[in-house]
Design brief:
- The chain has about 325 residues and is α/β, with parallel strands linked by helices.
- The chain has two domains: about 1-115 and about 295-305, ATPase, nucleotide binding domain (Nucleotidyltransferase, domain 5, 2-Layer Sandwich); about 125-285, Nucleotidyltransferase, domain 5 (2-Layer Sandwich), CATH 3.30.420.40.
- Helix content is about 40%, strand content about 20%.
- The protein contains ten helices and eleven strands.
- The protein has helices at about 35, 45-60, 80-100, 105-115, 160-170, 175-185, 210-220, 225-250, 265-280, 295-305, and strands at about 1-5, 10-15, 25-30, 70-75, 100-105, 125-130, 135-140, 145-155, 205, 255-260, 280-285.
- β10, α9 and β11 form a beta-alpha-beta unit.
- α6 packs across α8, α7 packs antiparallel against α8 (about 225-250) and α8 (about 225-250) runs parallel beside α9 (about 265-280).
- The protein is globular, with a radius of gyration of 20 Å.
- The two termini are about 25 Å apart.
- The relative contact order is 0.18.
- The mean pLDDT is about 95.
- The structure holds 5'-O-[(R)-(carboxyoxy)(hydroxy)phosphoryl]adenosine (KG4) and zinc ion.
- The site of 5'-O-[(R)-(carboxyoxy)(hydroxy)phosphoryl]adenosine (KG4) has 20 residues, from α5 and α6.
Length: about 325
């Protein structure tokens, strides 16, 4: 079995995954959302202190598996440096005390492998839209090592733009679910926001301009929160589907997936589903509980890393807050 640890942002999570059949045997996550909500975003030092309390408590609950562990996996990149350190220190301590090897895992790769948790049907190659708090990337994934970045964001990410809109509207953190709920009650055509990068052929994403359009709308009509959320979500999603169509007009794929925290957004899922039907692709999404950060996806990814023997020694496991693909 592999014990996996996730602490890249504001979720403390540990999982146990069986190597022979990739089955998830134990999974617990303690989210800090309420603690950060009053600040309108994640406060890194507070997050680190809360991980230092939560992770040992979760570890206590899975002690029965220690005797069967073959490796300890941990998110070492990308993320907040002060919170990554918490997980990595715990992983090093377990590696020494249980005499098992360490597996450093890329968090973004973890999100991709969330599609495979207890789901033997999923297979590569796949076109993957990664929409998390820190990233918006379109990836062509062939296997663990071969990941081609087709498009990335020039500034804010999709999820981050929801957080920023929520903050401007006084909704608290995280913004995604609240903005999505508010949008359900609003009229998506009420505000005529423009789709970012519409006239450039560049394959890229950008959300800072849309965020500014929303800021001005809030100044003009502070009471129209639901309509603002609906119009924002409509255009934010249209931006994604517009760029996706550009890719799909030139290349064909059998499998399409959305991963990352924002892949929980039902409106986004619906629009991507329509696109998949037009371009004859099967749509893959992770179970809702595995969309946002969790250790189960790190554990599932670690099974591949274990098979490929991607072990790191105590001294060369580095924390890389900004790595991407
Ligand atoms: O993957 P994740 O849990 O953490 C990172 O790796 O960043 O993603 C968190 C992001 C946040 O920006 C959050 O607002 C967004 O995912 N999110 C959503 C929804 N649920 C979470 N965005 C839009 N709609 C949602 N329903
Ligand atoms: Zn994440």
């Amino acid at each position: 079995m592999i014990l996996s640890i996730e602490s890249s942002c504001d979720d403390s999570s540990i999982a146990i995954t069986r190597i022979s059949d990739s089955k998830l045997l134990f999974h617990k996550k303690i989210s800090q959302e309420i603690d950060h909500s009053k600040y309108g975003g994640v406060v890194p030092e507070l997050a680190a202190r809360l991980h230092a309390i939560a992770l040992p408590n979760i570890l206590e609950e899975c002690k029965e598996y220690f005797k069967d562990l073959k490796a300890v996996a941990v998110t070492n990149e990308p993320g907040l440096s002060v919170t990554l350190v918490e997980g990595v220190c715990m992983a090093k301590a377990l590696s020494i005390s249980l005499d098992i090897p360490l597996l450093p895992i890329n968090h973004l790769k973890g999100h991709i492998y969330s599609l495979f948790i207890d789901n033997p049907e999923t297979t590569f190659p796949m076109l993957v839209l990664l929409v998390s708090g820190g990233h918006t990337q379109l990836l062509h994934v062939e296997d663990y090592d071969n990941i081609e970045v087709l498009a990335t964001t020039l500034d804010d990410s999709f999820g981050e733009s929801f957080d920023k809109v929520a903050k401007m509207l006084g909704f608290g953190y995280p913004g995604g679910p609240v903005v999505e709920q508010s949008a359900l009650k609003g009229d998506e055509r009420k505000f005529d926001f423009t789709v970012p990068l519409l006239r450039t052929p560049k394959l890229a994403f950008s959300y800072s301009g849309l965020k500014n359009q929303v800021r001005l709308a809030i100044q003009d009509a502070p009471k129209s929160k639901d309509d603002i959320c609906a119009s924002f979500q409509f255009i934010a999603t249209k931006h994604l589907t517009h760029k996706l169509k550009k890719v799909l007009q030139n290349r064909s794929f059998e499998n399409f997936a959305i991963v990352g925290g924002a892949s929980a957004n039902k409106y986004l899922r619906g629009e991507i589903d329509k696109l998949c039907k037009i371009y004859n692709m099967s749509l893959h999404v992770a179970d809702m509980q595995f969309c946002s950060d969790n250790a189960a996806m790190i554990g599932r990814c670690a099974i591949e890393a274990y098979k490929l023997k991607r072990f790191a020694s105590l001294n060369d496991i580095n924390i890389n807050p900004r790595t991407s693909f």
